[in-house]
Write a structure and sequence with these properties.
13 strands; seven-stranded mixed sheet; 2 domains; binds zinc ion; single chain
């Protein structure tokens, strides 16, 4: 454990990393206390497309990180009720994607205020309601909301960090620029000082190192990510890659590695964050 803790819904530099899981260590539905008063609920990504949630206990209320899909929101709300009798006051949408924000109405109905960096609301304006309407057809929990549009976060902030603080804890909400989307927010607990991200950062570092070396050698994308796709959790992604990563990050290598290599290759060769590249 290192000295800092980043608590996050999805910490991602690459677009595809949001879908990034290691199938070996997955324990969907489990709730683990990370430090006193902070819990991690692992979402069932594979079967239900749910994101993970963090529950943070304050003196009089709870903060939940990420709204999840509606069905995931209900499960996270039930988990919050199990760990504490305090009400959920804030739900922080780390970004606008359905698995992180489409559950907003569930939380609002439960009396919570959905909160996000203003870029999340801006991204929603950019991409919605088309995505919501498409998702409604394929996902029962979204369709069952009987809404034509997703619910944007009820409260936004534009100065980073936005801070919630009481006698027991301080929670900081940050925006650092382009990450997984234009509006990604990050949550940091300055007092607790525990690191969640070390392994994932190492993976990102090794991934960039390996792909950067291939770019330097003048390799083409098809040299390291050959044509041919496979379906992973409903996403069509490249099937294979010749890039291998060291053993110390192999816990983070999953079915999305070829897609991550492709995205990294594009980022390095075009010198732009992946979300800024034309699709
Ligand atoms: Zn996402």
């Amino acid at each position: 454990m290192k000295k800092r803790i980043w608590i996050f819904g999805t910490f991602v530099i690459l677009a595809s990393l949001a879908l990034f899981v290691t199938t070996t260590g997955a324990q969907p539905g489990t709730v683990k206390q990370i430090v006193p008063g902070v819990w991690f609920r692992e979402g069932d990504l594979e079967n239900q497309g749910h994101c993970n949630n963090i529950i943070i206990e304050m003196k009089d209320y709870l903060i939940v990180v990420d709204a999840n899909f509606p069905s995931g929101a209900r499960l996270a709300l039930a988990a919050a009720k199990k760990v504490s009798s305090k009400p959920v006051k804030y739900v922080f949408d780390t970004h606008h994607h359905g698995d992180h924000a489409y559950g907003n109405p569930i939380w609002t109905q439960a009396g919570a205020t959905t909160l996000a960096y203003k870029g999340v609301a801006e991204e929603m304006k950019r991409y919605e309601p088309a995505r919501w309407q498409a998702t409604s057809k394929g996902r029962k929990d979204v369709g069952d909301m009987h809404l034509d549009v997703p619910e944007p976060p009820k409260q936004t902030f534009d100065k980073s960090p936005f801070i919630l603080k009481d006698d027991t804890r301080e929670v900081r909400f940050y925006f650092f620029g382009w990450a997984h989307t234009r509006g990604d927010g990050f949550v940091y607990l300055p007092k607790e000082k525990v690191l969640l991200l070390e392994g994932e950062l190492q993976f990102m570092t090794e991934l960039h190192k390996a792909v950067g070396a291939a770019v330097k050698q003048g390799k083409k994308l098809t040299d390291i990510v050959p044509a041919g796709t496979k379906m992973v959790y409903g996403n069509e992604v490249p099937a294979s890659t010749s890039i291998t990563l060291p053993d110390n990050v192999k816990n983070w290598v999953g079915a999305f590695l070829p897609a991550q290599v492709r995205d990294t290759y594009e980022e390095i060769s075009q010198k732009k964050p992946h979300g800024d590249l034309p699709h």
